[in-house]
């Protein structure tokens, strides 16, 4: 390996270390505790070195949010691919969304602003478009109209999202029910919306 490749590899490793350190701080202390100085202390670098890789804290939040959307997109796609019937695909996709929220709580909080401000630049992420498209296409497939209007599909998507995200948010701020009750509520909501779309 040449010196140029070695330098590039070391830069990428440092970048990954910065992001890993940021996530570790958040897991230990919460998003409000994250700062460039704390990240520098965690990986035993000086703060100016962190700024060589990320312009500011918002740039770190953007990259972590982007990574979260990549992982969520993979989970949703994998869930969809397990089924052939559209109604089963849609239910599995939203359950995968739910599972992601609690398995990767810190990512979800950042991505969707649960109990904190979400990353403001997420509208410019292609990963967000990919996720929306997965849901939109599946909802469109479920609808009885041959070519449903985009606005109608969008409304159905937001019906799903507002209920599932609302339930997740309630639980993340410790005001939800026990897990068994949550699963009943989640499945009742999904089956109800899917049935409504199918009619």
From TrEMBL:
Keyword Mitochondrion assigned: no
Gene3D superfamilies membership: Tetracycline Repressor, domain 2 (1.10.357.10)
Residue ranges of DNA binding: 35-54
Pfam families recorded: TetR_C_33, TetR_N
KW RNA-binding (keyword) present: no
Keywords recorded for this protein, A-Z: DNA-binding, Transcription, Transcription regulation
A GO term, aspect molecular function: DNA binding
Domain HTH tetR-type: from-to ranges: 12-72
Record PANTHER family: ACREF/ENVCD OPERON REPRESSOR-RELATED (PTHR43479), ACREF_ENVCD OPERON REPRESSOR-RELATED (PTHR43479:SF11)
Protein name as annotated: Transcriptional regulator, TetR family
């Amino acid at each position: 390996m040449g010196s140029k490749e070695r330098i590039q590899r070391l830069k990428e490793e440092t970048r990954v270390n910065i992001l890993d350190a940021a996530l570790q701080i958040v897991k230990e202390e919460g998003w409000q505790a994250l700062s460039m100085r704390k990240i520098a202390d965690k990986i035993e670098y000086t703060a100016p070195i962190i700024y060589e890789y990320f312009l500011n804290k918002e740039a770190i939040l953007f990259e972590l949010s982007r990574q979260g959307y990549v992982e969520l997109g993979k989970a949703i796609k994998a869930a969809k691919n397990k089924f052939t019937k559209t109604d089963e695909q849609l239910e599995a996709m939203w359950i995968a969304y739910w599972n992601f929220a609690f398995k990767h709580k810190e990512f979800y909080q950042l991505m969707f602003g649960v109990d904190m401000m979400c990353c403001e630049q997420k509208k410019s992420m292609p990963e967000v478009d990919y996720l929306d498209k997965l849901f939109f296409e599946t909802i469109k497939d479920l609808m009885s109209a041959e070519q449903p209007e985009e606005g109608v599909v969008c409304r159905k998507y937001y019906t799903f999202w507002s209920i599932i995200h609302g339930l997740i948010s309630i639980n993340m701020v410790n005001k939800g029910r026990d897990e068994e009750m949550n699963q009943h509520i989640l499945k009742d909501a999904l089956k109800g919306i899917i049935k409504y779309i199918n009619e």
